[in-house]
Amino acid sequence: SIPTEIIDGNVGLSADNLNIIDKSFYLRGGEIFSEYDQLSVSFMGKDFTGIKSSFLFPLIIRIVSYFFEIDSFSWNFVLIFLCFISSLITIVLISFTAKELYGNKAGDISSWLYVICPYTTFFNLTGGLTSYIPLGVSFCGFIICKSTIFNKNKGTISPLKSSICLSIGCTYLASLRPNTAIFGIILLSITFLYLINFKSYSYYLEKLYSLIFLSIGIFFSIWQIIIAIPYLAFSLTIFIDETGTFFGVSREYLRVK
What we know:
Elements: H1 23-26, E1 39-43, E2 46-51, H2 56-67, H3 73-102, H4 104-116, H5 118-126, H6 132-146, H7 159-174, H8 178-196, H9 204-227, H10 229-241, E3 245-246, E4 249-250, H11 251-256
Antiparallel strand pairs: 1-2, 3-4
C-alpha cells in the first residue's frame, strides 16, 4: 500500500491489524486529507500521477474529521458507527427483498446469513467504505423487486419512481468505487432497455422522464470511471505486485494458484 505514517490503533480506519489497501490512500498525515486530490506516487519502479478515487467516502471522512480529531476514539467510533447503521439498513432491505420474492423464511435466512458473515463484522470494524456498498446494492435490489418495470403483476412502485430511485442508488454506488460504477451502468442500461419495451406504459411524458433519469445515472457512472482511471491503474498494479494477504490469504499463494 502507499507508504504513510499514521497513529496505531486497534479499531477503525487507522487500525494496524485491520489493514486494508485503501487505508493508506485515505490516511496520509494529520491534516483533513488536503493531499487527497491528485496524489502522485512511485510503486514497484512505476510512476503514477493524478491518482484520485471516487469522492463520496473521502467526503464522509472529511466531514467526520472536521468535528473529531483524526485517530481519536471519537473519530474511530463515529466511522464505525456509520458502517454499523449502514449494515442495519442493509439487513432490512435484504430481508424485505427476500420475503417479497421467496417468503418470510427466506427473508429471515438471508438476514442471518448477512449477520453471521465474518466479513460483515470485519468491514464494519475497519470503518471503511466496503460496508457502504451492500447498502446501495440492496437498495437497488429492493426497488427492482417492487418496481412495475420488472414485476408488472405484484410491483407497487411506478416506472418513473423506479427510475428515479435506481438512478439515485446507482449514483450513490458510482460515488463509492469504480467497480460499483460499472455495476450501476449495467443495471441502469438493462432498466433503460426494459423501459423502452414496457408495453403497458401509456404516458409518453412519464416514460420520457424515466429514460432521462436513467440516462443521467448512466452518464454520471461513466464519468466517475473516467476520472478514476489513474486510480484504477494504480490499484491494479498494487493488487498484482503487492505482498501480504488478500482477505486473509497470502497473495503469493493466490498468484501461484
